[in-house]
């Protein structure tokens, strides 16, 4: 059964008006999937806020204390990009638990997905780019600490490099970070993933998919992973306001299909976190994200 993390607080971040539009997807996406029959209510589970020990496997205690108590410096809050509030921290902690629980569901069913997550700009000691905590890093460390995985592969196909994830695992040989991202997109300063493929502005479906199709078998041979986290941001679309790539909706769907079929072919449990998506038409964002869920259902079940 495809298990999907979603909680009401995903949509209640008390953000200023200029940040609310992209947040609508967290409400509309599950509604669309339920309406069309891709999933039923039993596919959804509601995570609770994550326990502190899981956070502290990844994030510095001093940083967490500042987040929890609302004492982050103004400059640190500006880097996050959201006004800090207890509700926002609660929301982030719930998303973290969603991805962690998805890891266990993926071990059981082959795949699991978080309607939110993909908070790959969060470092061990700070937040950036609308990310307070790093859900992929927290879930990966959970699997490793519990002996549920020995070699984790992060496939990050968001338009933005997963700089926080790359930094967190820079010296951890149990986690391999792979990122295909816009060379000229945020962040201006890129970290060093284990393998980065920086992409030129405007790259289209054919060239993008060719690069990905070539990279996946190399990743399997090089890494020999036993678990995959997939950051499936749809800000790779040509229509995206914050991206500089040129993929069509069909190209984005084919991207997801390549990754998910590759995981299925090699018997690799995979957790997908949705990541970014900022096209002007909300219907484009929902359709692109919904394709990821449709493909997971069709390929694994």
Q: What would you say this structure looks like, in words?
A:
This protein has 301 residues and is of the alpha/beta class. It has one domain (3-300): Histone deacetylase domain (Arginase, Chain A, 3-Layer(aba) Sandwich), CATH 3.40.800. It is 45% helix and 12% strand. It has an 8-stranded parallel beta sheet with strand order 2-1-3-8-7-4-5-6, with helices on both faces. α9 runs parallel beside α10 (249-265) and α10 packs parallel to α11 (282-300). The longest helix is centred in the first third of the chain and has 24 residues, at 86-109. Pfam families: Hist_deacetyl (PF00850).
List key phrases describing it:
single chain; Arginase, Chain A; Histone deacetylase; globular; eight-stranded parallel β-sheet; 11 helices; alpha/beta; about 300 residues
Topology:
Blueprint: E1 3-5, H1 17-23, H2 25-36, E2 44-45, H3 52-56, H4 61-69, H5 74-80, H6 86-109, E3 111-114, H7 135-145, E4 152-156, H8 163-168, E5 175-182, E6 195-199, H9 205-223, E7 227-231, H10 249-265, E8 270-273, H11 282-300
Helix pairs in contact: 2-11, 6-7, 9-10, 10-11
Domain Histone deacetylase: 24-289
Family: Belongs to the histone deacetylase family.
Pfam families: Hist_deacetyl (PF00850)
Determine the number of helices (DSSP H or I, runs of at least 4 residues). Answer: 11
Largest sheet: 8 strands, parallel
Helix content: 40-55%
Tally of distinct domains? 1
CATH superfamily: Histone deacetylase domain
- Tell me the overall shape: globular
Largest sheet, order of strands side by side? 2-1-3-8-7-4-5-6
Q: What Rg, in angstroms, do the CA atoms define?
A: 17 Å
InterPro entries: HDAC_classIV, HDACs, His_deacetylse_dom, His_deacetylse_dom_sf, Ureohydrolase_dom_sf
Domain Histone deacetylase: 24-289
Protein name: Histone deacetylase
Organism: Shiella aurantiaca
């Amino acid at each position: 059964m495809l298990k999907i993390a979603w909680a009401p607080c995903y949509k209640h971040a008390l953000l200023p008006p200029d940040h609310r539009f992209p947040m609508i997807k967290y409400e509309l996406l599950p509604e669309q999937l339920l309406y069309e029959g891709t999933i039923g209510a039993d596919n959804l589970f509601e995570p609770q806020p994550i326990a502190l020990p899981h956070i502290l496997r990844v994030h510095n205690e001093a940083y967490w204390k500042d987040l929890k108590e609302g004492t982050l410096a103004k400059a640190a809050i500006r880097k996050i990009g959201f006004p800090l509030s207890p509700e926002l921290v609660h929301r982030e902690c719930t998303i973290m638990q969603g991805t962690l629980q998805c890891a266990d569901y993926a071990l059981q069913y082959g795949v699991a997905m978080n309607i939110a997550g993909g908070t790959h700009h969060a470092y061990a000691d700070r937040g950036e780019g609308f990310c307070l905590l790093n859900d992929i890093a927290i879930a990966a460390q959970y699997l490793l600490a519990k002996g549920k995985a020995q070699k984790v592969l992060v496939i990050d196909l968001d338009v933005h490099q997963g700089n926080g994830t790359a930094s967190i695992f820079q010296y951890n040989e149990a986690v391999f970070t792979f990122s295909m991202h816009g060379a000229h997109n945020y962040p201006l300063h890129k970290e060093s993933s284990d393998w980065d493929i920086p992409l030129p502005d405007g790259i289209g479906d054919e060239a993008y998919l060719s690069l990905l199709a070539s990279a996946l078998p190399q990743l399997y041979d090089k890494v020999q992973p036993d678990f995959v986290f997939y950051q499936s941001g749809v800000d790779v679309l040509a229509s995206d306001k914050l991206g500089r790539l040129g993929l069509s909706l069909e190209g984005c769907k084919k991207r997801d299909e390549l990754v998910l079929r590759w995981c299925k072919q090699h018997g690799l449990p995979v957790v997908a976190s949705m990541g970014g998506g900022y096209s002007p038409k909300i219907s484009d964002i929902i359709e692109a994200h919904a394709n990821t869920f449709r493909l997971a259902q069709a390929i694994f079940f």
